[in-house]
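tool=predict chain=A
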Amino acid sequence: MARIVGYIAASLDGFIADHNESLDWLTERTDLDLGEHHYDLFINHIRTVVMGRNTYDWLARQPMDWPYAAQRCIVVTSRPIPGPTGKIEVRNDIDALVAELRALDDGDVWMVGGGQLQMAFMERGALDEIEVFVISHLLGGGVPLFPPTGFSRNLRLLSAKPLGAGCARLHYSFE
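tool=predict ok
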């Protein structure tokens, strides 16, 4: 059975992108030392990525090659995607998708991007673990880590670790 995980960075005030949906505040940092938790090591364990339509659209607008060519990529949306960027599969039924993902046995599943889809999985008890990289930066607004849905649940903190002067990694389990 596949593990479904989150791996995401947020500003200290709880935002994953600024008001313009930019990640410059994160990508331009030079004081982050993720070591064994670096994205390049993390992605090697991921066989399937799942993202919502907003994340897909944001990625498709970026001037880069499709970043998930080595993974199976599923976009959750109810709208057609004409001329998709990269090889993708589309799903619109989250409950059926959860069952499909749980049946996988070829590696972990990563919930890519914003917290809206991650929250939908959390509400269904379908997110197993999440790594949140809290960046020493205040954005003052933007795209929140998770939308306010009223969902409440205690998590188990597996570890907390400083990663250089600019980041702390919080690793939680939803067990």
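The mean pLDDT is 94. The radius of gyration is 16 Å.
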